[in-house]
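Thread title: Can someone regenerate the structure for this chain?

I was given the following input by a collaborator and told the matching structure tokens would be attached. They weren't. Posting the sequence so someone can regenerate them.
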Amino acid sequence: MTTLAPLVDHCSKVIFHAPYTVAVEQAPLPTPAPDQLLIQTTLSAISAGTELLFYRGQVPSHMNVDASITALAAGQGIHYPLAYGYAAVGRVIAVGATLEEASWLGRRVFAFQPHASHFLAKGAELLPIPDSVSDEQAIFLPNMETAVNFVHDGAPLLGERVIVFGQGIVGLLTLHLLAHCPLAALIAVDRAESRLQRSAALGATAILTTPSATELTQLNGDLVYELTGNPAVLTDAINCTGYSGRVVIGSWYGQKRAAIDLGGHFHRNRIQLIGSQVSTIAPQLQGRWCKARRFETAWHMLESLDYTQLITHRLPVTDAAQAYQLLDQQPADLLQVVLTY
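Best answer:
Regenerated them for you:
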């Protein structure tokens, strides 16, 4: 095994012990197997959507933690305690005996890994970070890939009116990509004025806080995105969609439920509801698109991303419990919370 000295003898891991209970625990520093790499984390990003479902205990217990991510896919069902997180940036500090040292040692990499100061991974589980992308930009890779997926699934047409409900990180990145399209209107909807200010900076042509029922129907959107994580907003998204328009549902609601009105505007207007999830490629695109190509697109879009508009809080990993409390209790005041190591 080849290493970059010096190595500490322990690592720090963020553990969910129960809903609303997070701890940072120490463990011995792992040693790479011959085909493994040891990565020292520099930054990791907390997902204010998915991770808060785990934090609040709102994830269906029969589901796997994440069947598509190797580091999270082991075991059946969701049981506490568990480690979670899927946006880690770091550098390779130790290389297993059967791997080529020159190809890996010191290399900056992205990994879909839980929050931890160090972790083991095989080369196929890592994405080398392009030189043109900073560590701060790289932590947005999962959300940027999600935004690319949403744009693909919505397939905006030239001159359409597009509405995006929810201006958290995923909503802002989706809007940022849509702003590159020649649209007639790009409207951002969110309850938080601070987020809508960022929406305008990223390309929204109009911003709305709490539109009335009449205002919603007058929007007459061709393509509408529901990205709030709140199932009750789906009715609003439907009601502002015009005849034969489409609604892309990108939120994961977990166990949250709400009554959805499908008996009026929806029923008479041939509105399409499109479920969109980043773990797979839409069947109609699989002949030309794969995960590698979509990642390549996401990296390219990250090169010009002004992350200073999006990172609102940086906390040391030792303050992880405080980070989740802030996201849970003061969501309007935060966008991207980053753990530092």
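The first helix runs from residue 50 to 56.
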